Each structure stands twice: as structure tokens, then as C-alpha cells.
Predict the structure.
Amino acid sequence: MKIISFGSLNIDHVYRVNRFVRPGETLPCQQYLKYAGGKGANQSVALARAGVTVHHAGKIGADGDWLKQELCARGVDVSMVEISDLPTGHAIIQVNSEGQNCIILFGGANQDVDNQYVHTVLAKCESQDWLLLQNEISNIPEIIHNAHARGMYIIFNPAPYTESVDDYPLEKVSLMILNEIEGQELTGRRSPENILDALKTRFPSSEVVLTLGEKGAMYQSNGHACRIPAITVKAKDTTAAGDCFVGYLVASLMQAVPLKEAIEIACAASAICVTRMGAVDSIPTRDEVISLRFQIESRAIQFG
């Protein structure tokens, strides 16, 4: 059993500012940094650092070979990554003094995932292999259809959310991991409990994990719901926190960790992540995560 992380590869241009720039304003920044990023790359690195063997599939431009080197150095198999005629995707990221961010995303090569490439990648997969997807690459419906036909376990993180997600074959997804805003957009509900109920009704065969930022996470599985509080830390940069959570959660599940415990591990990983600058560079090692987790007690609050 192996996992394919089929997702984006971006060059992140990060600007540290006191506050976000306003319309018509020119604002100096305190610091400029360039990182490897993209939701797909971030989640692949998180999977690798959590202790599983991960194969990344995706596309870069001729200017992005260093991204492959960065991922490879962090334990990710990049043999499936292909070169596109389009430039590598990139993100313009402002990070304010409170560690919050706002992002402009250019898709580039991430939007060059065609049917031929999808079939080439998934032809190397077998029944019971796992597939992790986000929403920063093109052709997601074809990937889901193809993977489901092969009997793969499909995890989907609908981020960033777009209206097209409503038309994806989400009934074929095994596990959905989404944040509160994405849940609101997908269901039209506002409270976390109502979001979970609506998703359960619409996708009865799927498990759902709902992340709540500094409030932790919730899940619903087999008619049982649980809330896991976040770990309180002082954030420097929240850029890759959600991706770190996803990678550690999925890795733990692959290692046969029960869902509640897997979420606690993922919360610990994302807590460390937000105390560091960057995307890929901010993702902690498994030893760091386990050390933090065992410093705190489990505080799951049952409801429903």
C-alpha cells in the first residue's frame, strides 16, 4: 500500500508586513523570503516527515527544478513529477505582525494536468493504494473518477474552495478534510455541527474532518462526533498550518492510528508549524510532534 499526493508545486514569495496592504496603497515590507510551497508539496512533505513513503505527482515549469530537489531532500519521491511548457505555479504571500496571511495564487503548470498525465500516474497505482488531493491543480474530477475505478482510498482537501467543487464526484471520496469556511461554502450551513450533519447527509459513505483553526478540529465518523481542541501557541506564520495538519492526519491513519488520536497528532503538528516562517520549511519532524503531544493531555470534548 502506497500513497500518491497528487497536487500543486509552487514557488512562494513571502513578504513580512506590519499589516496587509490596502487598495491603492504602497507598503514597505520588513522581510522578503522565497520558499518551496504549494498545498500539494506542503502535504507531501508533512506525510514524509510523519514517517510514510509518499510519491508526489504534479507538474512544474522549466524554472521549478529546484522544487523537486527540495522535496527529494525532505524524503518525498518525485519520480512522477513532470515538466510543463507553462511556468511553475507561484504564490504572493503577505504575512502580518499577527502571523496571519493573505495570498495571491498563480496556477501555472499546476493547471496543466491533463487526462494523459492523470492516466500515466494512476496506471502505476493498485487497489487499496491511497490518493491525496487538494484543489490547486486542474482535472480533479478525472483524477477522482480514475482513482475510484481502481479501488483507491481517496482523501480530498477542497482548498482553495471554488464553485466547481460542487460539481466534483465527491460521493467517491473516502475522507474529506476541510476547514470551516470551505464547509460553509459546500453546505450553506454556518455552525460546525450543522456543517458536519449536512456533509454526513450528502455523503453518507465518507468520513469528514472539519478544522477550526485556533479552535481545533471536529470529526464525524460512523454516527459519532468529537471535538479536539487546538494547542495554544504564539503564531508567526500560518501559511502551511492546514497542509501540515492534513499530512500528519493522513500519515497517522495510514499507520493504523485511530481517527481521534490521529487528529490530536495533527493538531500538535500544526501548532509547531505556525511558530515558524515559510511553508515546506515550517513543517516539523515526527519526533518534534510526538514530543509536544505527550506534553499535553488529551482534551477531547464529546458531543452529540
